[in-house]
Amino acid sequence: MTKTPPPISVILPFYNAASTLHRAIESIASQRGIPFECMLINNNSTDESVEIAKRWTAQDDRFSLMHEKEQGVVFASNAGAAKSSGNYIARMDADDFSYPDRLQLQAEFLDANPDYGAVSGRVKHVGDVENTKGFARYVKWVNSVQTYREIWNSRFIESPIVNPSAMWRKEVVAEHGQYRSGDFPEDYEMWLRWLSKGVKVGKLEETILDWHDSATRLTRTQAVYSDASFYQMKTRYLAAWLAEHNPFHPRIAVWGASRISRRRASLLTQYGIEIESYIDIKRSRQLEQEVIYFEEIPPPGKLFILTYIRQMNARDRIQDFLHRRGYEEGVNYVLVS
Asked: Is the Cβ–Cβ distance between 82 and 1 less than 8 Å?
């Protein structure tokens, strides 16, 4: 008799993760309420990781081990997904911990919402908060971005989805592709690509993953996860969106006249976008372009604003100010950083 494929395939790539791999696999093995398979993909490990994976595959037939020689999480993840049999694909990292109801909750969401292509969930930051304040701030922000509309509106700030907390439909991959390799963060690029193609992405209210912040996490160790790579990549998607939706294309106004804000916004000029003015909280700012004191911005319908302010509190105040002035997010302005 042919074995019925499980509805969910968990993709768990690993590289030299002997200190955390057992914990990660055990958290998947402890999932409740729904059948699954878990693809363990060894990506040229030289420590005890492979032996740990072999012990799991020997004792639990829901787990299988494969090897990917081309180095990189993109290749390992895509190789696992290509051999998976589930209709839903869930990502998991080798240093994280999934809560017992994660897979069931996400599958139930996708079952109940056929118009959604993917779903993630809230995560708990695990690490030394004092030494990783930036990471902790990001987790606080990403957990606050909850609905599809919030995910859509926030997509140019940072990645609104924590990759190892996500599950998606296999047909989304068939239609739009999965991870791409390049000089950019592969997960953020995938979410921007899918969202740009109309894929709806949801997020559970429940916390479903312990997201461990470690010194070896790729976002700390590889150049493709640098600020420069983030801005280069998301600017390409932002420029394409502006070409379709900015009524004053190619002209924009940039809220944020500091040197850093101007440098980041200037990346748009390679796509033909013209920065006609800056908006600043200082009346005395002098630049080649026009500088508008923020309280003197015109009413909606006169210009399109991109905010290049990184600090969350300041960004929230700017958004409140724009709303009081009648500006509508996605219509008259977009938050970028």
From this structure: no
